[in-house]
Amino acid sequence: RAHLQPAAPPPAAPPPPSASKQGGPSVPQSGGSGGGGDSGNAGQEKKGGGVGGEAAELSEGELFQRRLQKAEALAAAGQLPYAYGYSRTHLSDAFAAEFEHLLAGDVDEKAEVSLCGRVMTKRLFGKLAFLTVQDSSGTFQLYLDKKTLGPDFKLFLDLADAGDFVGASGSVKRTDKGELSVFAHRVQILTKALRPLPDKFKGLSDVNKRYRQRYLDMIVNPHVRQTFATRARITAFIRRYLDGRGFLEIETPSLNSQPGGAEAKPFETHHNALGLNLTLRIATELYLKRLIIGGIDRVYELGRIFRNEGISTRHNPEFTSIELYQAYADYEDMMNLTEELISGAAEAACGSTQLQYQGTPIDLSRPWRRATMAELVMEKVPTFDFYKLRERDGGSDIASAGPALAEAAAAAAAAGVPKAAEAPCLGQLLALCFEELCEMDLVQPTFVLDHPTETSPLAKPHRTLPGVTERFELYATGRELANAFSELTDPIDQRARFEAQAAKKEAGDEEACGVDEDFLRALEHGMPPTGGLGIGIDRLVMLLTDSASIKDVIAFPLLRPE
Fold it and tell me: For the chain, does the N or the C end have fewer beta carbons within 10 angstroms?
C-alpha cells in the first residue's frame, strides 16, 4: 500500500594488463577501423564490434570479465575508470535549445560546451564515430573525429561501451543529416559499467524485471523517469497549496503501541531495548488529532503507511498518503478543499484538468458530482431503501438483525452481491452493496456521501440523517482516491465506537482496532469541531500519469522473492 536480485557469483580476477610493444597498456581489441565495444547493442557485445568486427556473442560472465579488463586498461593508461566529478555546461535539453539555429553542416567553432551522460549507442564509420548519450533531460550526440582527437580516438573507442558514463567538451556541429552534436575535442570515460544494458531491440520487456531492477527500467524507458518526475511535482504542489493556507506539516510516529485510524491488519515488530511489542502505523490520524487538541488548528502529514494486506494493481503494503485536519471545519469544507487540491495538482502536473486515463476521458474540472451511498445503491437495488428499512428494524445507530435486514439481504443477493446474507446489520450490507455494485461505475470524480455509522468509527454522526455519518469518499476511474469526515469529537461516543471495534477484534477480525486509551484521554480534554481528509498519493499519481498499476508509480514496490 524491494527485493534484491540474488548476487551473481563474483567473477574471477582478470589477468593484469600486459605492456604493448610501444610500452603502453594492452587493451582488449575490438577490431574494425576505429575501435569497437558494444557497437551500440546494449544487450550483447561483439568480439569484433564496430564495422567489420566478428559477430560472436559473449556470455554474461565473459562480458563482465572483458569490461573489467577495460577498466584495468584505463587505469594502466593513467585514466580514472571511476572519476570524481565532471564540470558540464549544459544538459541535453538546454544544449538543443541554445543551438537550435544551426543549419545542417554548420559548425560553431567559437562555442565551448561540456556535456556528460550514459552511452546508449555507439556507431563507427572509419575515422568517425557517433555516440548517443543520455542525461537526465534527454539525449545528445557525440561526434568523434580521429583527426581532432588523435591517439585518444582509438583508445576511447576501444574502452568505451554502451552503459558507460562519459564526458566530452568541444564545439558544436550539426551534421549533414541534421543531428545536433557535440564536436568533441576532449572525451573521457567517467564510469566504466561492468554489466551491459538490456538489448536495444528487445528492451526490458519482463514486467517483474522492470520492477525488481528499476534502475534499468529508468535507463531504457525514459517515460518511467518522467512518471517519477511528475509524482514529485504533484507532491510539491500539495505541500505548497497547504503551506500557503496555513497548514503545518508535522511528522508523527511510524511505530505505534496501539494501531488505529483505519481498519487494516498491521505489521508487527518488537523494540528490544524497551521490551515493547509495536506495530507499523496503518494511519496518521490519531496523532494528528492530538496536535489539533494541542492547539495547532491546521496540520498535515504526507508520508508512508504500512498495511499487512494483499498486493494488486491498486494495493501495495507500503504506500504514501496525506492526512490533513482543519479545526472549525466539517466535511463540506473538506469536499471543497479536495476539489481545489486535486484539480490544482492536475493543472500543475499535466497542465489541464482534462485527462485521459487508459483511453477514457476524465474531467477534473469543478464542481464534481455528489451522491449519497444510499442513493447509489438504490440505483442498483431499487428495493433497498436504507433509511426506510432501518426505521423498520428499530432505528438504532448500530442496527441489529431484523426482518428488514433479511429483506434487503435477499434483494442484494438477487442483484449479485456475494455473502449478502452474512451481513450483520443494514449499515454493513449497504457498504457491501456499494463495493460490489457501484464502485466500478464511478469513472468521473464523484463524492460518495453519508457512510453508515457501523463502518465509520471515527466520523461524527450526520446532523440530520439517522444511521449515517458525515463522511465522504472520493471515487474516480472506479477506485477510491480520498476519504474525509466531520471528525468525531465526543469522547463518550468515541469510546463506544472503539469498544465496538475491540469486540470485532476479539471475535477474530484482524483489521479491527482496539481501544486507544491515550487518544481517548486526549479527546476528553476537548477537541474543536474538525474536518479531516486523507488522500492516497499513489492512486492520485496513477490517475495523473495514466498508469495502470500502482507498481508503476512506486519506485521500488514490494515483490515476491524470485
Answer: C
